[in-house]
Write a structure and sequence with these properties.
- The complex is a heterodimer.
- Chain A is mostly helical.
- Chain A has one domain.
- Chain A has eleven helices and no strands.
- In chain A, helix 1 runs antiparallel to helix 2, helix 1 crosses helix 3 and helix 1 packs across helix 4.
- Chain A is globular.
- Chain A starts with 5 loop residues before the first helix and ends in a 10-residue tail after the last helix.
- By secondary structure, chain B is mainly β.
- Chain B has a domain of about 120 residues.
- In chain B, the strands form six sheets. In chain B, strands 2, 3, 4, 5 and 6 form a five-stranded antiparallel beta sheet that branches. In chain B, strands 11, 12, 13, 14 and 15 form a five-stranded antiparallel beta sheet that branches.
- The termini of chain B are far apart.
- The chains are: A mainly alpha, B mainly beta.
- At the A-B interface, helix 1, helix 3, helix 5, helix 7 and helix 8 of A face helix 1, helix 2, strand 10, strand 14 and strand 15 of B.
Chain lengths: ~230, ~375
């Protein structure tokens, strides 16, 4: 069991909460409005300046009072949100359903255990040797996923959170706190709910067409190919 | 190619960092049983009783904890202020020297804790203290976040000057729920390697006891849960041998009995035992093991016409399951409060402190003699 120094935690809290705040502002920015790089940079800079204010003047003081530290993964995903707006990649999805499902399941099990309902000691294991092995495995898997182009944003965020944990033990010395926090879990559950709602709405809106016959000779002879207006 | 190399470097660096950290890791230490067993009957003779001086303008006081100092001296910590959870509640200390208590001094406030931690602290609660082999005092203080006691965290502070001043070490990470709902109350327990166990408990509707172990350098080495009940808290832990450890707990269930758990592997795992016949209306208790091998418990007892905290009793047991009363330390009418007891053996003396009517901290001193009839 190795825990981070308080000074590191002090610095981490301000930087990480600044990322979270800036990402929230960017995420709520109206889609119709343009967001040039200067605005993204300004939001990030202003968030950081706010967090660096002394004592109770800093939002980090109050956020720490309520939530202590955001997980490394939440901070990483928030940094990814800022980077996506900086690079003007509006189609970047930070919380795809599979990733959200993994976080939601892990969070539910972890918090049921923390509430004493499971009594399996999952959180305590986050300080142990098994967590160290898991950190290395996760780092390897994230690097592989990034290399193969699977969920690059999420892979990068996980790798960053694990690296932060392994090199400095931030934010708390527990691997569970590096990869998950109740805010991130709530985000994952919200995203899953949104995805489920969208799927339901799509299903409801789909017109009930009569099934096509299996063999349509006219189509077969014409050699029809699918057409998409999107450039590839 | 460059990105592959960068990724590989990061993964290898992570592997190296983890491997390096775990080759330096310390194995779990066994609990220290302090003294060899001396056969004989225990006699407790009261030597003195007094009130620890209170700071000015603090009508409310609660939750005392003692730590030993060299030369049969002691220091006691407790919280005091206008009322429980009040913004002016602070942790105070007083030193026992030459048979009397000195003037109290302020140790921690919500302002001093917040300043040291870099985030706000809303209210201050129970302290627990431990003196390590190098004479440093480790003070653990309940400090809440947003909310009531359910939002509690435990701050770890260290003093190198016998409690005159403290330096903040960190908030101990013990829960994934914003690290809230963890508290301390009962005495720490020494380990053979110079480390110690800090009894902890979770309290957010459901309540369960935990144990955090520390190495001789004061760094945490492990965290685990005691038993699987969800209605017990404030474990009083007593080692019997290197492997056999007992814990008695405050009960928040409808059973209203002192709860009991046992470890047979030096605290690594715990099993719940049947509750004792001693009643417990959700009140804190303290327990120690005496030189003759018997367990001594200081606990509230309810008699006809009394209330949950109006009688504070000392009881003895040979097996930890069956107890017999030895002496009533304090008793009053229904509604009186003598609660949150703490015990410390210093040489052949037993020191007891407890909350007196929520107004002050009382101190009783007993001589422990073995070999005579009670």
């Amino acid at each position: 069991m190795a825990l981070p120094e308080l000074t590191w935690q002090f610095v981490y809290a301000r930087l990480a909460w600044a990322l979270v705040l800036a990402a929230l502002v960017v995420a709520t920015w109206p889609r119709a409005w343009r967001m040039p790089r200067a605005v993204v940079g300004g939001i990030a800079g202003a968030s950081l300046l706010l967090m660096l204010l002394p004592g109770a003047a800093s939002p980090a003081w109050h956020l720490g009072l309520a939530f202590q530290y955001p997980s490394g993964l939440l901070a990483g995903l928030c940094a990814a949100r800022l980077h996506a707006r900086w690079a003007d990649r509006r189609d970047t999805v930070l919380m795809p359903p599979r990733f959200a499902a993994v976080l939601a399941v892990c969070g539910t099990v972890l918090y049921l255990d923390a509430f004493g309902l499971l009594a399996r000691g999952y959180y305590y294991a986050g300080f142990g040797l098994g967590a160290a092995v898991l950190a290395v495995v996760l780092a390897g898997a994230s690097a592989l996923a990034f290399k193969r182009g699977h969920g690059r944003v999420q892979a990068c965020a996980v790798l960053g959170a694990v690296a932060l944990f392994s090199f400095t033990r931030l934010p708390t010395g527990n691997l569970a706190d590096a990869l998950l926090d109740p805010l991130l879990c709530a985000w994952a559950l919200f995203s899953l709910g949104q995805a489920a709602l969208r799927a339901l709405l799509r299903r409801g809106a789909r017109p009930q067409l009569a099934p096509l016959p299996q063999d349509l000779p006219a189509l077969r002879s014409a050699g029809a190919e699918p057409f998409s207006p999107i450039k590839e | 190619m460059a990105s592959t190399l960068a990724l590989l470097t990061v993964v290898l660096a992570i592997g190296a960092a983890e491997a390096g950290r775990w080759t330096r890791a310390r194995a779990a230490a066994a609990p220290s049983t302090l003294q060899a067993t001396i056969p004989g009957v225990v006699t407790l003779s009261e030597l003195s009783r007094s009130m620890i001086p209170m700071p000015r303008n603090t009508p409310s006081a609660h939750a005392s904890a003692m730590a030993t100092l060299p030369g049969d001296r002691m220091v006691t910590f407790w919280w005091a202020g206008s009322r429980e959870s009040g913004p002016d509640v602070k942790v105070y200390a007083s030193q026992w020297h030459n048979g009397k208590w000195g003037q109290p001094w302020e140790v921690a406030s919500r302002d001093s804790l917040g300043k040291a931690l870099g985030f706000g602290v809303r209210r201050i609660g129970n302290p627990v203290a431990w003196t390590d082999r190098s004479g440093r005092i480790h003070l653990y203080v309940v400090a809440t976040g947003m909310g009531g006691w359910a939002a509690s965290r435990v701050a770890h502070m260290v003093s190198k000057d016998e409690g005159a001043s403290f330096e903040m070490k960190r908030v101990l990470p013990m829960s994934p729920l914003f690290n809230t709902s963890v508290l301390v109350r009962t005495n720490a327990v020494g380990l053979v390697d110079g480390g110690w166990w800090l009894p902890v408990y979770f309290e957010l509707g459901i309540k369960y006891p935990m144990l955090m172990s520390f190495g001789p350098d004061g760094e945490p080495t492990g965290l685990g849960r005691i038993g699987s009940r969800t209605t017990t808290l404030q474990p009083a832990i007593v080692p019997v041998s290197r492997n056999d450890v007992r814990a008695w707990m405050r009960d928040a269930s409808d059973e209203r009995r002192v709860q009991h758990a046992r470890s047979r592997d030096g605290g690594a795992s715990w099993e719940d035992l049947p509750p004792l016949s001693l009643n417990n209306e959700s009140t804190s208790l303290a327990a120690v093991r005496l030189a003759n091998g018997e367990f001594l418990m200081l606990h509230n007892h309810i008699e006809h016409g009394g209330s949950s905290r109006s009688l504070l009793r000392l009881s003895l047991s040979k097996d930890g399951q069956t107890w017999r009363p030895v002496a009533d330390v304090a008793s009053g009418a229904a509604g009186d409060e003598f609660s949150y007891p703490s015990m410390q053996q210093v040489g052949s003396e037993l020191h007891i402190t407890y909350t007196f009517q929520r107004r002050a901290i009382a101190h009783h001193r007993y001589r422990i003699s073995i070999g005579e009839n009670i």
